[in-house]
Amino acid sequence: MTHFRPISIVAGLALAASVLAMNAHAAEPTVAPVAPAFPAEGKIKYVARDSILEFKALAEYHEPDWVNDKFVKTGKLPPLKERLPKEPLVYKTGNMPDGIGVYGDTMRHVIGGRPEGWNYGAGQTQGWGGIDIGLSECLTRTAPLFQVEAKDTEPLPNLARSWEWSPDGHKLTMHLIEGAKWSDGVAFNADDVMFYWDDEVVDPNVSPLNGATPETFGVGTTLKKIDDYTVEWTFKDAFPRQYLFAMAYGTFCPGPSHILKPQHPKYSKNTYDQFKNAFPPEYMNMPVMGAWVPVEYRPDDIIVMRRNPYYWKVDEKGNQLPYLNELHYKLSTWADRDVQAVAGSGDISNLEQPENFVASLKRAAQPDAPSRLAFGPRLIGYNLHMNFSANGWGNPDAREQAVRELNRNLDFRKAVTMALDRKATGESLVKGPFTAIYPGGLSSGTGFYDRQSTVYYPFDLAGAKAELAKAGLKDTDGDGIVNFPTGTAGGKDVEIVLLVNNDYGTDKSLAEGVIAQMEKLGIRVILNSLTGTQRDAANYAGRFDWMVMRNHTELSSVVQNTEQLAPVGPRTSWHHRAPENGQLDLMPFEQQLVDIVDKFMTTQDNDERTKLMKQYQKVYTENVNTVGLTEYPGALIINKRFSNIPQGTPIFMFNWAEDAIIRERVFVAADKQGKYELFPQQLPGKPGDSGPIN
Ligand code: GLA
Known about the structure:
This protein is α+β, with helices and mostly antiparallel strands and 694 residues long. It folds into two domains: 11-37 and 379-632, Dipeptide-binding Protein, Domain 3 (Dipeptide-binding Protein, domain 3, Roll), CATH 3.10.105.10; 54-91 and 96-374 and 636-672, Periplasmic binding protein-like II (D-Maltodextrin-Binding Protein, domain 2, 3-Layer(aba) Sandwich). Helices cover 27% and strands 17% of the residues. It has a five-stranded mixed beta sheet with strand order 20-19-21-17-22, sandwiched between helices. It has a four-stranded mixed beta sheet with strand order 4-14-12-11. The chain has a four-stranded antiparallel beta sheet with strand order 7-8-10-9, with helices on one face. Helix 16 (505-521) links the parallel strand 19 (495-501) and strand 20 (524-530). Helix 1 runs parallel beside helix 15 and helix 13 (410-418) runs antiparallel to helix 15 (461-470). Alpha-D-galactopyranose binds at residues 128-130, 133, 334, 350, 352, 656, 658. Residues 1-26 form the signal peptide. Keywords: Signal, Transport.
C-alpha cells in the first residue's frame, strides 16, 4: 500500500496535468512507517504497585543530627515525632534501588524558565524543570508508575492515603493523611483541599498552573468536605477510576490555604490579579507539603531550597526524608542544563533536545564522565496544532478567522501534512536512528500505540498542492503564495502566524523547518516566537493560528491528562477551546474523538480501552487532528554520585523524570558527598521572611 514515487515525476506531472488529474495521482494514505530500532538502554525493573510504599507508624524516627542539636534541643522546633503524621508515608526498602540512604548533599538543577511567583494554584510558573514538581504534593501520585505493569497502574496514594467507591460507583470517599503539616508547622487538612477545589479550580477567575478546570474531573463532578480528613467526590458516571490520575501532579496539588485564602478576592478586598501576584519570587519560605522549601532567590542566578523539617515521608528505619538537604535551581537555559549535567557542574538533565544528543553521548561515554546517560523509549514528540475554533476563541480578526476556516478544512490539513518531509525534519535535528516519522497522535512509545491504526499521508509536494487547490486556494497574483478566495480576507496572500516557544532550540528549529516547507507549498508562515510563559498565555487565550508544541502527557501515557486528548470540555484541548460563552463548535470527527475519550474514561475493561485507543488514533490521524512533526527518545543524565535512581526511568511518561525518580528517596553515599550546600545546617524560616534560619 505504500505509494512513494520519485518526486521529480510527480512534479513533472503537476506541471502538465490539470488539478483533477493530479488528484488521481496524489500519494495515498498508508500506515505509519516502521520507526528505526532504538532499544531503550535502561531496562525497567517492573514491580507490583503495592511494593512501593505504605502508611504506618514506626517504633522510632530519626533526622539529621544537626536538626536535632540546633533546632529541637534549643526549642526552635518541636520534636520530630510531633512534626510527623500519626502514620507517615513509608517507602519500602525493597523498592529502593540502593536501599536506605544517608543524609547530606545537594541536587543541582539547571532550568531555562524563570519564576513568576509562588502562586501555583493561581497559575504562576516557578520556572519548570522540576521546581514546582518538588513543591507540589498531590492527592495521588503517578510518575513512579512507569515501573508498574500496565494492568496494575492505579495511581499511588499520597496526600490521599486511601479511598473507596460507593457500591453504585458514583461516590469516591478519600481519606487524607492525618496529622501531616505544611513546612511552617500548620496542619494540612480538608480545608486545603476544599480551598483548591472551590476557590481555584471551580472559581472561573482562577486557573491553576497546569490548567485544572472542573471538567478535568468530569462534567458535573462535585467535591465536599466530610470531616477534617475526609472528602467525598460525586461523579455523573459510575466508577470513573480515570480521574484518580487527574488527582496527581499537576491538576490536584493543593496550596497552603492558611496563606492563600486571606489574599483571595472572595475573602479579601484584593482583585484576582492582586491575588495571583501576592507571592512574588522574592517571597521566601512559602509553605509547601513538598520535601524542600524555597529560601533564596537571586534573579537570573539561582533559587535555593532547604529541607522541610515537617516532611511527612520516612524510610522503613524511620529516617525522615528527604535525604538531600538542599536543592539548587540555577536560572540559565535548557540547553545549558544538558551541558552542565554532562560536564558535572549540574547534576540532572532530561536530554530532550536532539541538537545536544551527539555531544552529550560523546562526553558520557568517556570513562571519567561525571554523569550517567541512559536513553528511554521514544516518548518525546512534537505536533503542529491548528486553531480549530471558528466561533470566537481568542477574538480573531478577519484574516485570523479566514485561517481558522482553512484549519477546519480537511483538504487544507492534508495539504499541510503532505508537504512536510518528516525524514528531513528529523535529520535536521540529529542524524542517526533517533527521530522517527511521526504522523501525529499517540506516541509510538506508549503501550496504547498501534501502528496499523496510525494513518500517514506520505510526503508528496505535488499531491499537497493539489489538496490546496481542492481547498480553494490559488496563487492569483503569481507571487508564489496562494491567495484566499476573493471575498475572503480581501483575497490576500495566505499568511499564517506560527506560535512557538523560544526557550527551546528544538522548538525554534522545528518551526523554521515548517516555515521553509510551507513556502514550497505556497503558504507564507510568519513566526511569533515568545518565551515559554508568554507562549502558554497566548495558547490559553486562543491567540494563535498555528502552534508548534512539544507533546504533553496525554499523548505519552494516555491515562494521564486524558481529558486533554480531545475537547471533552470547554477548556481541555490545546487547540480547540470555547470562547467565553462556553460553546465548542466541534467538527464531526472531533465529536467522534470526544465520544471515544469519554468512553475510555469510564471503561474499566482493558481490552475495550485498547480498542478505543486504536479507534482514537485512526480518527485522529486520518483527519489530521494535529500535524505530527517528529518524535524521538530522551535520555536521563544524572551525576554518578546519586543513589536510588530507578533503572530505566523514562524522562517523560506519566510525568517528568524529576518526579519519577522520587527525589525525596535519592541520596549521596557519605564518601561521595560534595560540598555544594549554600546554607549548611540551616532550615526554612517563617513564610515571607527573607532566607533560611540558623
Ligand atoms: C521543562 C523541561 C522538562 C522538564 C519539565 C518539568 O518542561 O523541558 O525537561 O524538566 O520542565 O516540568
